[in-house]
Amino acid sequence: MHVTLTVWQALLIAIWVALVESRILGFATLTMRFSPLMTGMMVGLIMGDLRQAMIVTAAIQLVYMGFVAPGGALPAEPSIGTAIAVPVAILGHMSPQGAIAIAVPVALLGSYLYQFRFFLNTFALKSMDKFAAEGNARGLKFSIMVIPACISFLLFIPLIFIALYFGAPVISSVVANIEHGTIIHVLNSVGGGLAALGIAIIMQVIGKKTLLPFFFLAYFMSVAFAKLDINMTIYAVFGAIFAIIYVMLTSRNTENN
Amino acid sequence: MSETADIQATANEAVQDNTEHRLPQPDKITNKDLMKSWFGWWWANEVPHTFDRMLAPSFCFGLIPTLQKLYKDHDELAKAFQRHLLFFNTQATWGGGTLTGVTISLEEARAKAMANGEEAISEDMINNTKVGLMGPLAGIGDSIDSGTVQYIFIAIFLPFAQKGNFLGALLPFLLFSIATFTYGYYLTKMGYTLGRNAAKEIMTGGRMAGIIDGLGVMGLYMMGILAGQYIKVQSYIKFSINGKKFNIQEILDTIMPGMLPLLVVLGLYFYFQKQGLKITRGLLYLTGILIVLSIFYII
């Protein structure tokens, strides 16, 4: 099976993926990222076969139905998987199911690419802090929007272009080969451990050491009750009740004094 | 972050605020300002996403035009920019919309009080309100917006897509974007009104220290839940001696389940406690350690 796209087709699809994954179109990109539908439609338009593209994309959509990203991290990037799988399916006259087999591993790899973007965005923080300290609103706006957007475009456009132009089947076979390898293990471990960073920072910011027992209380509640799959809102209600009790008890103590 | 050390420092800071020189009067906040801030947050939503600050820069981006109207004093403006660049993570509409409104009302109350030489809402109060509310609101927003509203629209129009009609893609996207943008703006306005009343109540009731503590409890509690759910660190060390197999993770679980994630987060906490909030350095060290340990399948 020989699969190629023209340079322009590959480039346009790559730019679309960068628009979605950079999130530069605002919160509207949520559906574009979580659902393969819009990417499938754009690929269909660019390749001139809207009908077949929609049929293939609808099959991919079923795989990702109900996908949500608690805390912002999605376990896969359906948009990236679709951008690679739909062209392959159209050019190779593949079944929608065959397209799914390509989309899923590529989307998995795409989620690491998306997390890598978080890393690269860290480079913009230094100039944000500098402009904020100077009270420079224009500079601050620039460093919040323009620098991360450029980072995403530089990351996604070349990679997606190369992936499409030099053949998506190569990519999917590479992904299949490393699926259980050390690279994926390292990526998983780093992603799993890094979640600790933001939490430690916020503990430091609101950090009254005397209140730390409440952190431990919550931590062990969530470990102990993990199997019960308790909803976040319920935990929030617990938290609010503990907070109220704490305030009630401490204010009574000061009155007695 | 020396002023966050304890209750005493918080109270001192509030007193200091009113003894400082008076600041210029802030401009009045209008619906147009709320729309500008909501749009700014909506637009920047996940553009500058990082592991260490999450969505804080986007939140700050939305507030910039409003903060410029509130703080005519250059130093206070810079301080406001800086406090909104600290870690912040929530969902866009229910969390971010509401908190944009609440934060603007708190910042407005602070700016007004400082201009009139009265006791002003402290920076801690503003930070703790954001942090205390961001988690629960995000939980609500994730399940409503991305978990329900989005998939209702997709489910309705998926049959179009299955027949090869592009409207099956376009309509769910348009309807979801319009719906969330609209109610996000109403949540911003609602947050602003609620926050303004709450701010008045807090300042007249003289219960600020208690409320800061309460929000601190709530915030730390939610962080404990998040730590338990999202930090995934486990040991992969397995070996056998004389035919008896040892699995380190199983042994750790019998001693205390959830030990390794807790050690990671506490290690970071005490690192920041000792070294100050050197976030980028913390990120690099942690990543380096995790890479080395996972290459050798220790974790």
From TrEMBL, chain A:
UniProt key word Cytoplasm: no
Domain of life the protein comes from: Bacteria
GO molecular function terms attached to this record: transferase activity
Main subcellular location: membrane
Keyword Ligase (UniProt): no
Membrane topology: Multi-pass membrane protein
Stored Pfam families: EII-Sor (PF03609)
Gene Ontology cellular component terms for the protein in this record: plasma membrane
Subcellular location: Cell membrane
UniProt keyword annotations, A-Z: Cell membrane, Membrane, Phosphotransferase system, Sugar transport, Transferase, Transmembrane, Transmembrane helix, Transport
GO terms for biological process, alphabetical: phosphoenolpyruvate-dependent sugar phosphotransferase system
Transmembrane region(s): 6-32, 53-74, 94-114, 146-171, 183-203, 210-226, 232-249
Protein name per UniProt: Phosphotransferase system PTS sorbose-specific IIC subunit
From TrEMBL, chain B:
InterPro entries, per the entry: GatZ_KbaZ_carbometab (IPR050303), PTS_IID_man (IPR004704)
Pfam families reported in the protein's UniProt record: EIID-AGA
Keyword RNA-binding: no
UniProt subcellular location: Cell membrane
Bias type Polar residues, positions: 1-17
Membrane topology: Multi-pass membrane protein
UniProt GO BP: phosphoenolpyruvate-dependent sugar phosphotransferase system
Annotated spans, Disordered: 1-27
Membrane-spanning intervals of the chain: 166-187, 208-231, 251-272, 279-298
Keyword set includes Cell membrane: yes
Gene Ontology cellular-component annotations: plasma membrane
Keywords: Cell membrane, Membrane, Phosphotransferase system, Sugar transport, Transmembrane, Transmembrane helix, Transport
Stretches with biased composition (Basic and acidic residues): 18-27
Location (main, coarse): membrane
Protein name (Swiss-Prot/TrEMBL): PTS system mannose fructose sorbose family transporter subunit IID
Lineage, uppermost ranks: Bacteria, Bacillati, Bacillota, Bacilli, Lactobacillales
